[in-house]
Amino acid sequence: MKSILLSDSKDIITGLRLAGVKGVYCKDKEDLKKNLYAATHDNNIGIIILTRGVEDKIQDELIKVKEQKMPLVVTIPDLKKGLEKDFILKYIKDSIGIKIS
Protein backbone atom coordinates (compact mmCIF):
# COMPACT_ATOMS: atom_id res chain seq x y z
CA MET A 1 0.00 0.00 0.00
CA LYS A 2 1.14 3.50 -0.84
CA SER A 3 0.53 6.87 0.76
CA ILE A 4 -0.35 10.13 -0.95
CA LEU A 5 -0.30 13.70 0.34
CA LEU A 6 -2.86 16.26 -0.83
CA SER A 7 -1.81 19.78 0.11
CA ASP A 8 -1.80 23.40 -0.93
CA SER A 9 1.71 23.86 0.50
CA LYS A 10 4.63 23.15 -1.80
CA ASP A 11 6.99 23.16 1.20
CA ILE A 12 5.15 20.31 2.92
CA ILE A 13 4.95 18.37 -0.35
CA THR A 14 8.71 18.73 -0.77
CA GLY A 15 9.38 17.68 2.82
CA LEU A 16 7.29 14.53 2.63
CA ARG A 17 8.68 13.72 -0.79
CA LEU A 18 12.09 13.44 0.91
CA ALA A 19 10.50 10.80 3.16
CA GLY A 20 9.19 8.90 0.13
CA VAL A 21 5.58 10.10 0.13
CA LYS A 22 4.12 11.22 -3.19
CA GLY A 23 2.53 14.64 -2.94
CA VAL A 24 -0.05 16.36 -5.10
CA TYR A 25 -0.36 20.13 -5.14
CA CYS A 26 -4.01 21.23 -5.00
CA LYS A 27 -4.43 24.89 -5.85
CA ASP A 28 -8.18 25.15 -5.23
CA LYS A 29 -11.19 23.25 -3.89
CA GLU A 30 -12.14 21.69 -7.23
CA ASP A 31 -8.60 20.44 -7.80
CA LEU A 32 -8.63 19.00 -4.30
CA LYS A 33 -11.95 17.19 -4.84
CA LYS A 34 -10.69 15.71 -8.11
CA ASN A 35 -7.48 14.41 -6.52
CA LEU A 36 -9.31 13.09 -3.44
CA TYR A 37 -11.71 11.17 -5.68
CA ALA A 38 -8.81 9.72 -7.68
CA ALA A 39 -6.96 8.70 -4.52
CA THR A 40 -9.99 7.00 -2.96
CA HIS A 41 -10.57 4.96 -6.10
CA ASP A 42 -6.95 3.85 -6.49
CA ASN A 43 -6.62 0.40 -4.91
CA ASN A 44 -2.87 0.90 -4.38
CA ILE A 45 -3.36 3.84 -1.98
CA GLY A 46 -3.84 2.91 1.67
CA ILE A 47 -3.26 6.26 3.37
CA ILE A 48 -4.35 9.73 2.26
CA ILE A 49 -2.53 12.49 4.11
CA LEU A 50 -4.12 15.93 4.19
CA THR A 51 -2.89 19.18 5.67
CA ARG A 52 -5.19 20.95 8.13
CA GLY A 53 -5.98 23.84 5.77
CA VAL A 54 -6.96 21.48 2.98
CA GLU A 55 -9.09 19.39 5.32
CA ASP A 56 -11.16 22.45 6.23
CA LYS A 57 -12.01 23.05 2.56
CA ILE A 58 -13.55 19.62 1.94
CA GLN A 59 -15.19 18.56 5.21
CA ASP A 60 -18.33 17.16 3.52
CA GLU A 61 -16.37 14.98 1.08
CA LEU A 62 -14.11 13.72 3.87
CA ILE A 63 -17.05 12.44 5.89
CA LYS A 64 -17.95 10.12 3.01
CA VAL A 65 -14.36 8.93 2.63
CA LYS A 66 -13.93 8.30 6.36
CA GLU A 67 -17.04 6.11 6.40
CA GLN A 68 -15.29 3.66 4.08
CA LYS A 69 -12.99 0.96 5.37
CA MET A 70 -10.09 2.01 3.12
CA PRO A 71 -8.17 4.26 2.64
CA LEU A 72 -7.17 5.72 5.98
CA VAL A 73 -7.32 9.53 6.07
CA VAL A 74 -4.75 11.32 8.23
CA THR A 75 -4.52 15.06 8.87
CA ILE A 76 -1.26 16.81 9.67
CA PRO A 77 -0.65 20.43 10.68
CA ASP A 78 0.43 22.85 7.98
CA LEU A 79 2.27 26.14 7.99
CA LYS A 80 -0.92 28.23 8.15
CA LYS A 81 -2.87 26.19 10.69
CA GLY A 82 -0.60 24.60 13.26
CA LEU A 83 -1.38 22.38 16.19
CA GLU A 84 -4.11 23.48 18.54
CA LYS A 85 -3.46 23.81 22.25
CA ASP A 86 -5.03 20.46 23.22
CA PHE A 87 -4.48 18.64 19.93
CA ILE A 88 -4.06 15.15 21.39
CA LEU A 89 -7.14 15.39 23.63
CA LYS A 90 -9.25 16.73 20.76
CA TYR A 91 -7.96 13.98 18.47
CA ILE A 92 -8.93 11.25 20.95
CA LYS A 93 -12.36 12.79 21.48
CA ASP A 94 -13.00 13.07 17.72
CA SER A 95 -11.68 9.57 17.02
CA ILE A 96 -13.35 7.49 19.69
CA GLY A 97 -15.94 9.82 21.16
CA ILE A 98 -14.79 10.07 24.76
CA LYS A 99 -13.73 13.17 26.66
CA ILE A 100 -10.56 13.05 28.71
CA SER A 101 -10.03 15.79 31.27
UniProtKB/TrEMBL annotation:
Please provide, alphabetically and separated by semicolons, the GO molecular function terms listed in this UniProt record. Answer: proton-transporting ATPase activity, rotational mechanism
The coiled-coil regions, if any, are: none
Q: Which UniProt keywords apply?
A: Ion transport, Transport
Q: Which InterPro entries match?
A: ATPase_V1-cplx_f_g_su, ATPase_V1_fsu_sf
- SUPFAM superfamilies xrefs: AtpF-like
The record's listing under Pfam families reads:
ATP-synt_F
Into which family does the record put it? Belongs to the V-ATPase F subunit family.
Q: What is this protein called?
A: ATP synthase, subunit F
Provide the species name: Peptoniphilus lacrimalis 315-B
